[in-house]
Structures are given as C-alpha cells and as structure tokens.
Design a protein that fits this description.
The complex is a heterodimer of chains A (about 600) and B (about 55).
Chain A: H1 14-39, E1 47-48, H2 63-66, H3 78-85, H4 91-112, H5 119-130, H6 133-140, H7 144-165, H8 175-181, H9 186-204, H10 208-231, H11 240-249, H12 260-265, H13 283-301, H14 307-329, H15 331-340, H16 358-373, H17 379-395, H18 400-405, E2 409-410, H19 415-430, E3 437-440, E4 445-446, E5 456-457, H20 460-464, E6 468-469, E7 474-476, E8 479-481, H21 487-495, H22 500-509, E9 514-518, H23 521-525, E10 536-541, E11 545-550, H24 567-595
Chain B: H1 2-31
The chains are: A alpha+beta (about 600), B mainly alpha (about 55).
Amino acid sequence: MGGAGQPSTPAARPSGRFLLRLPHALPDLLVVGLALLLLGPALLPGYVLSYDLVWVRDLAVTTAGWGLGDGVPRAVPSDQVVALLDEVVPGMLLQKVVLLGALVGAGCGAHRLVRTSPPAVRLAAAAVALWNPFVAERLLLGHWPVLLAYAALPWLLLAGRALRERGGAGLPLVVAPLAAVGALSASAGLTTTVALVLLVGVVGGATRRTWGALGLVAVAANAPWVVAGLAAGAVTRPDAGAARVAAEVFAARGPGDLPAPVAVLGLGGVWNTATVPDSLTGPRAWAWAVLVVAALVGLALRSGPPRRESAAVGAAAAVGLGLALLSWAAPGLLAAVATAVPGGGVLRDGSRLVGLAVPAVVLGLAALVTAATRALRGPPVVAASVVAALLPVLLLPDLAGGAAGRLEAVAIPGAYGEARDALRADAAARDLADRPVLVLPFASYRAPDWNGGRPVLDPVPRLLGGPALVSDELVVADRVVAGEDPRGPVVRAALALDTPEERSAALREAGVAYVVHARGPDVDAAPESLAPDLAGTALLRDERLDVQRLEGADGPADVTAPAPSGAARVGAVTVAWVLYGGLLVAPAGAVVLRRTGAPGRGPEDGSPRS
Amino acid sequence: MGTGIIGTLVSLIVGGSVAAVTVVGVVSSQTGAPSESPGNSSEPAASVIQYGDN
C-alpha cells in the first residue's frame, strides 16, 4: 500500500489500485446497476402502491400494529416496524430504501457465496439472485417482507459457513438481526425459519447448544405474528369449503398455457397471473425452468467439500419448490391441513417460499459457469462475464423500468390527509377516537385512478392512522375467499338493510361511529351494496372521498364500545415484542461488551457462544 | 495464435449479441404499444376490487 519506507510501484498508485480492485468490485456495481434498472420509476418521488405494497408518509403507531387490534393481525410486525422507523425516516424514503435494500442485499449476498470464483461466476450469481421471476412476481404483488426474507437467505448461508468454521459452536451475531428482518410477516417468518435450520444449523454443523440458540432466535423472530394471531383468536380453522376455495385460488399456477410445474421450476408460479410479466408467458418461462433445473443438476454434481452444504441448500430448494408443486398438485391436501391445523392456512400461497431455492440455484449455476469457463483466457472471459451478467435480464426484460411502469411511484391525494384531520378533530371532541372507522366500499382492494388504475390493498386505513374496519374478504378470479374477521358479516348485514337510517343504526351497534366513503371510477363500477348511502353528518366532501359521522353517533354512549384487550393478551404480546426487539438489541450489546473487554467474550473472535 | 483470434472473434460475437439482444428486449418491453405493455391495466372495471386473477 505504499507505506513508509516502501518504494511506490505503479500498481500501488491510486489509479493502479482502482484497476486492480475493479474486477472484485464488478459484482457489487452490477448489483446496484441492475437494482436501479429494475426499480426505475419506483425510485422517483412518490409512493409505490401495488397489491399488498401500501406505504404512506407517516404510518401511525397503533395498538393494532402491536397485534392488539380487533381485526386479524395480518400486518404484524411489518406495519409497526415501519411505523416506528418512519418516525425517523420519512415513509417515502423508507419504502425506497427497503425495496432497493432487498434487491441489493440479495444480489450482494449471492455473489459473496462464490467469493473466490472468477468474475464471470460472481456476476452470474449476483444477476440471477436479483433478477428472476420470484423477485418479479413478489415485487409486483407487494410482498416486501417476503423479499426481505429472500434477501437474508444468502447472508444466513454465509453465517452458516462462519459457524462451520467455528466447529458449530458460537452462533454468529449477524444471525439474530437477519432473522428479525426476515420475519416481518408470517410467510417471511416461515422462509427464515427454514433457512435458520438448513442454511445455518445444518450447514454450520451446529452443536446442541447452538441448536438451542437457533431455536430461540427462530421463536423470537416469529413471536410477534404468532402471538398476535393466537391472542386475537385469528389462528382458527376455517371450514372445509372455505379452505378448499382458498387452497385452489392460491395454488401455484402458470400464466396462460404454461404448465404450473414449468412456472415453479422457473422460480415463478405465483397464483396471481396478473402479476406475471408478459415475458414469462412464453419461451422465456421454459428457458428459466431449464436454467434452474440445470443449476440444480450442477449443484448435485458440484465437486469438492462440503457435501453437507450442497445437501442443505438442496433441501431448502426442495422445501420451496416442493411446497409450490404440492399446492398445484394437491390443493385438497393443503386445504385439509388448513382445516385440521390452526394457522395451517399460512401455507396456502404455495409459491411464496419458492425463493428458498435461489441459494441452490446460485451455487449450482456457479458450478456450471465455473466448469464452462475454466479453459477460457482473455476476451472469452469478458464475453462469458457479459453473458453471465445479462442472461437473467435477457430472459426477463420487462422487469426493467419498474416492471415496465407497473411499479410507478404516485402522489397520494391530499384529500386523505384532510380526511384524517377531520376525523381526528371530530372524534377527539366527541370522545369517539377508539371507535373504528368503517371504510367503504367494503372490499379489500381498490384500483384508484390516482394510482393509474393499478390494484392495491385499500390504503385508507393506513392513511387515516386510527382503528379501521375493512373487509378482509378476498375475491380472486370471481371466487370469494371468506375473511376471518367476525365483524365482516355483521357489517355486510348492516349494509344490506333497506334504508340509510337502518344501516347507520346497525353500524353504530356494531361499534362504528364514522365512515370513509372512497370515490372514483373503480368505486362507481363496484356493486352498490358495497358502499350504499348512510344517514349521518358529512365532515368532508371531496371528489376522492367523503367522511361521515353516522346519524346518532354524538358520543361514546351512542356507539357500542370495542372490547378492551385482556391483561393476558397484552402481556403475551408484550413478551413477544420484547423477544423480537432482543434480536436487534442483544447483538449490539454483545458487540459493546466485546469492545469493552467485559467477561464472556469468545476465545477466538469475541463472538458470544450460543 | 489462430485459435486465439477465432476465440476472440467468437467471444466478441457472443458477448456482443447477448448484450445487444438484452438491450433491445429491455427497450422494446418499455416502449411497446399500450395494449401490448405489461403495465397496461385497462382491465374490465368490474375486476378492480379483485385481489387477482388465476
């Protein structure tokens, strides 16, 4: 490095060092470049709203966010984590950081799995992990917690390798925060749990004590959503008919004539074919399947140690792909599981765990590219690197530019802020702040014109920031998947009454004091029964939405009060969050202890033993 | 020597072709007619409250 007393060589000059380091930096540069190319307009000012991807400027910290609301806690802990973080970082910026971070994290982690390989191999690993059908479909469907769990996979595998180097004793500190980031939803938590077992525990050859630590990490990471679901009584067993419908509509499938197994083997297979890029409906989808199968064969034939790692990542791939194929081949079986096992319905979206196959694909593809380029020197290496870096883009070109504009950032109309202010002022004056606001139309999803007509989970509850009563009934391909919130049928029955006065009275009895009635072309096209007229006082009238206080809702005595959360429920949820928070705090504490030389440091590198 | 030149030429052709086709694919996917664009969301209005299609 040209230190004191050493002669300075050309290679040691800054420009020389840069050129020498360039090949090593290329994969990171490729990752950043592809991530920017992929997100494109999503990174412009505004919010990206696509299906379950709903972010607002300042998500409120609510009791429902902790898992203590009246509805089914579907967004625990993701919403509350966002609500806490956006106290520091504006929601708009935070969303972009999360989306970009997930993609960059996945790509950078993937090429570090093959750190000692030639550039072409590392470029291939980075590109295929960042740019593939799984990323495309989950991004368009808005499953950002799943993508964060996906991004954590290669890093967990790296942690597993570090654990192996320690002889299986001494869990790397990074595992705890990775698990926390990777378990922001139920499906993400399942993915991360499988990864903790296979990619960390098995790969690392964990000792019994380390297995115990891994178990504790898995429990803590999943505690918020598990405990919130149990405490809310939401982890119920649906009736056989509802479970069957859900299993069928959420089963893995291929778009158009593409067979579902081909779509799944190509790292796709999402149930919602509307989120499948056009390029995955034809020959390119077959090419992805061939690429993945070839990579898995490459993994099986990979020479050299450790075989345990190949077996573990292969097993993770088998779990991810196998569950997806099972949901296609035997939806009745998953329906039976959902009926028999409380919470078993979380498996119904069969292709949600397909990302578990990507570490295996990365390692297998790396083995193939290594073998193919072993004899190359000079320009052919450059050509191989170009092919390796661009092949995923070639096979999925319409993922560029925010999936060809489908992930466009939009401005949220100011009327929503006005509605929130009007509601808060009126509710505070009348002591009705704890009563939920009914959101109409009483349907889960909307396609607002200000969002380009793109479907999105109704954003009103997050924009209002208080307790809201929304439909959790899902309509997929004209089939209705029954919701789990017991208030849903009550509201539907109230909305079906003959007169506005009768409807308002029934809704007050159900605990509703206020109604937000969204407007727009999509609402006009919806059945009137989802948003009938109600009797009440208008607090706000806008072309986007109306806000109304129901007739007779002049104070808390006029509206049925929500049942308070029991002490046991509050205690259980508190413990769950303390455990979850511990995953972030404990490693930081261990680092502080290590740096201050406190007792308990590990014998080799100071990492605490499990 | 001859093999080296041929290898270089083949590499240039292969690498250049992949790069060119990729760029063409990306550009065409971004600039296709609205009816052909995956970003087109002019679906029947009745489907706007649906979670998705099978």
